[in-house]
Write a structure and sequence with these properties.
7 helices, 2 domains, 8-stranded mixed beta sheet, 14 strands, globular, Aminopeptidase, alpha+beta
C-alpha cells in the first residue's frame, strides 16, 4: 500500500498531536517540544514545516531554548521534514544521528471482533499504567503519567486481561481519518500468548467505530520482534525517520 507524501505529512502531524509535550514553542513553523526528560518525541523539535528564511538562526533558537532547560538539543528528522536539507545542515553542525525508526500503516478493516479478554476505557487504570510503565526507562517512567494525562480526547486505553490480571496495554488516539497505535506493552511472562494481537484487534475495532481509515504506529527498526508482529497483522512501512542530537 503506497503512502503519498501528503498522507505521510498528515500521519506525522497526527503523531505529534497524539503524544503532546509539556511545553512547546513555535520556531518559524517548527514545533519546539520539551517534557523534562523521557520520550524523545516530546523532547525534540518537530520539523514538519518551516516558514522562516534563516535556518541557522532557527537552529540556534532551538539550541538556546534547550540549553536554558539544561537539556540537549534534539531534532526529529522525517522524510517530509522542512527544509529538505535540514538533516545535512545538522550533520554539518556536528549533530549525531540516532537509530532508525519506521512509521508503519494499515488500512482499517471492518469485521474485526474485540476479544472478551480486552477492556476499553477513556483513562488509564492503575493496572494498565503498571503494565505500560514496566518496560520504560526511569526518566520516561517519571514523565509518562503526566503526558498521558494531557492526551487529546477522545482516546481509548486498551487493557488485555488474563487470569484476572492485566498483562498487556495499548492506546489509540483518533485524528480525523487516522488512528494511532501507542503504548503497546506486554508483561514478559505473558509474551507469545497472543496478548498484543488482541490489543491490536481492539484498536482496529475502535478505529472502525470512529470512522478512521488508517492505523499508524512508530517504532525502532532494531525492534525486530515488534516490526515482525506488526507486519503479520497487516502493517507496512510507510515512512522512516531518525533523530539528530547535539553532543
Amino acid at each position: 500500500m503506497p503512502i503519498t507524501r501528503q498522507s505521510l505529512i498528515a500521519i506525522e502531524h497526527a503523531a505529534v498531536r497524539s503524544w503532546p509535550a509539556l511545553e512547546t514553542f513555535d520556531i518559524e513553523g517548527w514545533l519546539w517540544r520539551y517534557a523534562s526528560g523521557g520520550s524523545q518525541r516530546a523532547n525534540s523539535v518537530s520539523a514538519l514545516a518551516f516558514a522562516g528564511r534563516d535556518v541557522e538562526a532557527a537552529i540556534c533558537e532551538a539550541e538556546r531554548r534547550y540549553r536554558a532547560k539544561g537539556a540537549q538539543c534534539w531534532f526529529t528528522i522525517t522524510e517530509v521534514s522542512e527544509p529538505g536539507d535540514l538533516d545535512g545542515r545538522l550533520a554539518a553542525l556536528g549533530y549525531q544521528r540516532s537509530h532508525d525508526h519506521v512509521t508503519m500503516v494499515k488500512e482499517v478493516e471492518a469485521g474485526a471482533v474485540t476479544s472478551d479478554h480486552v477492556e476499553l476505557s477513556d483513562s488509564p487504570t492503575p493496572e494498565w499504567m503498571a503494565v505500560y510503565l514496566t518496560g520504560l526507562s526511569d526518566n520516561r517512567r517519571a514523565v509518562a503519567p503526566t503526558i498521558l494525562a494531557g492526551l487529546p480526547a477522545p482516546r481509548t486505553f486498551i487493557a488485555c486481561r488474563q487470569g484476572g490480571a492485566v498483562i498487556g496495554s495499548g492506546l489509540t488516539v483518533p485524528d480525523g481519518e487516522l488512528a494511532s497505535v501507542q503504548c503497546m506493552a506486554t508483561l514478559p511472562a505473558a509474551r507469545r500468548t497472543g496478548c498484543a494481537r488482541r490489543v491490536l484487534a481492539a484498536i482496529e475495532v475502535e478505529a472502525a467505530r470512529r470512522g478512521c481509515r488508517l492505523l499508524y504506529l512508530q517504532t525502532e527498526c532494531a525492534n525486530t520482534p515488534a516490526v515482525t508482529l506488526y507486519e503479520s497483522f497487516g502493517f507496512r512501512i510507510g515512512g522512516r525517520y531518525h533523530l539528530r542530537w547535539k553532543p
